[in-house]
Amino acid sequence: MGNTQTEQMNVTALLGWSLQAIEAIDKLNRPYVVVGPPEFQDFADKNEIQFVAWQFERLNERSNELYEKLSALNTKLAVPVYEETVEWAGALNARFSDDPRIFNRSLLLRDKGLMKRKAQMSGIKVGVFEEAYSKDDVYRFLKRVNEALIKIDGDPNDPIHVKPLNKAGTVGHRLIRDAQDIDLMNEQEFPCLMESHLDGQEFSCEAFVHNGEVRFLNITEYVQLGHSNFVPASPSLEEWRPQIKKEIQKLVDAFEIKYGVIHPEYFISPDGTLNFGEVAARVPGGHIFELIERAYGFSAFQAQILCSDPDTTDEELEAFFPEEVTSAKGYAGSLMVYPRVKLIEKLNFPEGLKKNPYFEKHDMFIPVTSKVAERVGFGNHYGTIFFFGKDSEHMSSIMKQYQEYDFYL
Amino acid sequence: MGVETVSAKEKFKQGLQVLSDAKPFAKSMYQTNVFQLGIELAESKEGMQAIYENASKFDEAGVFFGGPWEDASKLQPPLVGGSLKLKGVNSIIELFSEMRMLAIAKGDYHHEKVSEKEARSFLNEVLALNLDLLFPPETEAARVESGEHIERAERLFQYLGDELSFNAIAGKIVGEIERLTVQRPIMVERIMKMIHMAKRMLEAEIDQKSKKSLSAFDKAITFPTPVSKKYKDLRKYQSHLKEMDEPELIEEANAFAKSVNATGLVSPHHATFTRFLNRANGDLLPLAFDLSETGTASFNVNKELIHDIIQLAIHPETSQSIYGLGRMLDRGVLTQDPILPAIRRLLELDIHSKVKRSLLKPEYKRGAITANGVLVAGTVSVLGQPLGVGQGLNPTCQSARAISLWAQHGIGQLLEYIARGARDNDIDVTFEGEVIHASGLEEGVAGGEIHQELDPVSIVLVPHLDKIYNEMMKRTLLRGEDGHKWANPEFYGEWIPRGFINFVDPLTGFVVDYPAFVRLFYATHHPEYNEGYEMIYPNPVGIFITNVHGKLLGLHAVSIQRIAEDENGEYRLYFYNPNNDSGQNWGQGIEPSVSGNGELEGEASLPFHEFVSRMYAFHYNPYEQGDTYMVEDELVQKVEDIARESWGEAYTWAE
């Protein structure tokens, strides 16, 4: 009996291999299938995880094959885990729900140029931006931006940023101050997006959206972009929550986001003006999901899955999400460690930090290969230190204290 | 509301619980934390205790899930030390693994596949193999270089040492030392190190037999005689020698001789004694060297040369060569006339500066010993202990085997190579009419890097020989047959018969006509099938090395020295293994013995068919063989079965 029932239940597809996501959906007791690179097939078989091997390259004429495969398993919903799977989820969900627009919406999230344009057209405040197709475009943009800032000869330039149109977070990001910086760019980096520099404190939000409505909004405070952040944000940032929430809803409406999680980044100036940076519709980096779970006690992976499913009821969501900010048991933070040496000789974990009551755990070992890999974005940190405590200022100060510390020698 | 602080012990327990609760596929996410907390706990003895208290839960929780340590019954003691000494996460997993084993050994954890006894013997072997961790050297340098993972490993071993009896370990170590010394290697550093470390166990509760054996070994490398024990300082010892009368000196000489005879190990005092006699009372030297009648005769005829050799080459730092000198005289090496000038030449040879640098290790420099002294000491050792030549940590079994062969049957050629290598830093060999110069070659089997813990002769020759051998093999690459067929006779010399067989097809890699191979070996080598032809020179053969489970580890080169009946009338094959550690366990009950079955110094032996089952190539004389069809089918089948169930599993057998 039980079996036939399972067979009839709708199956959720996780796009991308993430043990955390798999564990989360497994604990939800809902049938699922994982779509991931073929090298995980053996592991999946051994552990009786329903698995479809797939290489997420560009969408192409073969994409239909994946739909057929998943459909045969009675899959009715696709949840993206990684940046590269967002448009796949869009394409699949468009077919599952027979709503082609879902796919087009997902593309908005995968092309930073389109994304900015859409935001701007919807009255969301963004910096000046343009797509660049050659180095000449970058020279011109840098010049024009600084002219607009009424810089005269000899004044230092205001920097601009360039980044790939479709990569996660900080991958491929460059800060351009002058012509030399442009010379360092590769032809392969084009086309890319150029933006004027936005001052202010950067932070990210994780908004869990169901039926077009933000059901839970987490604000993650960045102590240093890509290195350290904590959840929930400090009172001085949380003070702006109503404004932030309004902005997020504007974003959700503009991008016609109906279901799932979005992870936008903003800059907030001291007077509360919010500038939109970018938005992704996937699991955020920086261990933010883990921090949310530590602070609030619910699994953000499960939240993403529940919110991605149109069939999830309001009651279920109400029961699932706790109250924002006030229900947090404390501040949960993570400090990501990148070796600053070429060859790692030893781990240098400070005794004082281990004894700090805010210190929870870390996952650093001397890696088997002592040669340090080149950094791509903020993607491949070598270790993470987790903190938990009651005071956001103290949290911030510990992170700043160890920002420059060499954990690897 | 303060965040509660939990003790590391408690955290560890919680971490294990979380891991335990996780489904198998998710375990890897929670293992890291358990490892981290384990590292923290392992910083103290109490923490070690806490790890042990939880060890019976490791398997159930999934601490080893998905990794090489998962199945306790598949673990191997020789690999433990290496993992513990690695930086990184493996060292802590290895530590957990030992704790699990200890829990099994003490009966606190019942394991389906590993018994208490097996676990205990596993740990005893681990301790015996890693004496440096059990008794860490107390020098400052060692400390500074160690690092926290080494300290952690040492703490683990202290813990294990306290939990296990030293008795069993002592037995293992003594057995190991005995096994190694009985083969009489030239390089004894490893043995000395073991003795030095095991010495500390003399104070612990160990059985009398082990204690006696251990202290005898310790005496042999330190103060083997009553007088040396009294005058531990070499200078005082030498001054005292001057005051001793003849009977006292004779007694001293006998005491040294007895110690060396029993162990093959020589103490520095023995060198001082030898040098003293060399100056003051040369007639007592045959006693001090424990010479046979042949040796004494040879000594008497060559007094002057031996005097010079001792003067130049025998020092406390090179004392081990005294053993080689004695055996060289006993072998009658100096009775061959051309050898005398060839050795004398080495005393004054103008040694190439590069070679000088590699010969003069720091301790020799400190002792102001000349490069010629080191070279002669090494030459004497090789000529006295041809089967004591070892390849060290290099994959250069071929070169070691060559030096050993020449030291037995081609002394003139060996001395020529030594002189050429030391003076010119080059050797040339003619291969199929073309001269190959080692100095013109880039790479050898060892990739151009030779590990320097070798005897002086090997230091001089192996870099060249290795390259030449490699070059010869390269030149035979496209012939569609195993190149050893051509390379061996020209590399080793005329002692190698021209017939050659290798059953691995070089094109397909398949095993071809295995039964024919077995029959041919019996018909050419087994006295009951080969028409009574005796082996004259050692036969270089290729064998598969297998581990204790019979699994293929790799290819190796050894030499068959002789074939003879043992005491029980069983035919055995006596062979030389250039790794100087012949008594390894090859699995399937095949364990070469190094003594007790009629082995000579440096030989290992196996029953005939067992050895054949590991062989893949040999040379033979096609004019001296019996009829292959006389070899019984059952015999061939028996060998083939053993072969197929061991290394044969890694090969495809052509039908």
TrEMBL record, chain A:
Gene3D superfamilies listed in its UniProt record: ATP-grasp fold, B domain
Organism: Peribacillus cavernae
Residue ranges crossing the lipid bilayer per the database entry: none
GO molecular function: ATP binding; ligase activity; metal ion binding
Domain ATP-grasp: 116-309
Keyword terms, alphabetized: ATP-binding, Ligase, Nucleotide-binding
PANTHER family reported in the protein's UniProt record: ATP-GRASP ENZYME FSQD, FUMIPYRROLE BIOSYNTHESIS PROTEIN C
Superkingdom of source: Bacteria
Protein name: ATP-grasp domain-containing protein
InterPro entries: ATP-dep_AA_Ligase, ATP-grasp
From TrEMBL, chain B:
Domain of life (superkingdom): Bacteria
Name of the protein in its database record: Uncharacterized protein
Organism of provenance: Peribacillus cavernae
